[in-house]
């Protein structure tokens, strides 16, 4: 706590700050543009993103329609992430601290807790996905590997259980070495999966006897069904990065400058997401030609090659990319989110280790494969996180005018204290935003609205928050003066 005490001058409340939640000191702001490009390469190159994009072919879109969905979704995501990156880089603060400005130091625990739950949820899912890659490697390396499936433990075949434990240990190793290990891990984990993706595209082109058959196959849906599915698919793709839109400041707080994260994310986010998604679409189109149906999981496709070297290289790449995205997104997020809940007892490493333990105890092998539609799951995540995104953006750019009082984040009687730490206006805006985003699921007659769930959540959450805050400021000149003073 020496660094914290030095920054705080003993003014900050120790229950609201520790080393991980304090502003990042200049000595640790060493991430350059390549650091962010590599991190995003690692985030982009994961099986969930691959499957969501490949699923566009499976549900009946043509190549060019799929391209349009991907371009729109990640274009919107990039704008939102870039806007929410600025305060992290400017003030060196993580998401759980920044969110106190809108919700209050106690009210902030609500969105932080929800974000932590989602991170833990995805921790378990990605570890399970990674364990499948481990199993593919071991099945090639050890001829008797599959015979272990005759034994059961905690609802899993013994071979799958061993693979899951190995994947868990890999995550624990990377996480236990803190944020600097995350950065170094991403520098090579991200580019590695591109080798596999390029190889699969070459295979798809060869299987189709040229690229033209891959891009010229017609769509199998049209009319109202097409448009509803089109926008729902955009929401699903946004769902893959919706949580990152919220906590991107957990990464940009380490940026050397605003320019570094803007350039790095510009290369690593929209460009790499677009390239990687197009690769998955081309490969999925190739599997339709080669096998008569779209194969969306690259591990399933690798196993069809029945070539030990290809399976080993491919599965290892998938494992590394899965661990990469899990650590860079869910690990970083839950590390700060849970630390914010109990700053006196938890730090980044302890929080992450707790998260991967709970993620494992959630037994994803019992329920993940039963999901009927990955698009609906991603859409639900986007609908939940969208209103918080809208509130954060409105608070920083319109209410706070791009300025924060850093000291006020760490005291109980400052600008962001509101009423005993709660800003009821933000909670109301969030609740209404989530309700509107889910209207299409609640009322069957409004099911078409669910296709726009992320946009509705962001829009309604942000607008209602702005109206309530401006109304409050109009009624309370003292609060207006405090905000102006902080700006």
UniProtKB/TrEMBL annotation:
Main localization, broad class: membrane
InterPro entries (alphabetical): NCS1, Pur-cyt_permease, Uracil/uridine/allantoin_perm
Record-given protein name: NCS1 family nucleobase:cation symporter-1
Keywords, alphabetical: Membrane, Transmembrane, Transmembrane helix
Transmembrane spans: 33-54, 61-83, 112-131, 151-175, 187-206, 226-246, 267-289, 309-329, 350-368, 380-399, 422-443, 449-468
First and last residue of the signal peptide: none
Similarity comment text for this entry: Belongs to the purine-cytosine permease (2.A.39) family.
PANTHER family the record matches: NCS1 FAMILY PURINE/PYRIMIDINE TRANSPORTER, PURINE-URACIL PERMEASE NCS1
Any matching Pfam family: Transp_cyt_pur
Residues in coiled coil: none
Species: Paenibacillus residui
Gene3D superfamilies associated with the record: Hydantoin permease (1.10.4160.10)
Subcellular location: Membrane
Domain of life: Bacteria
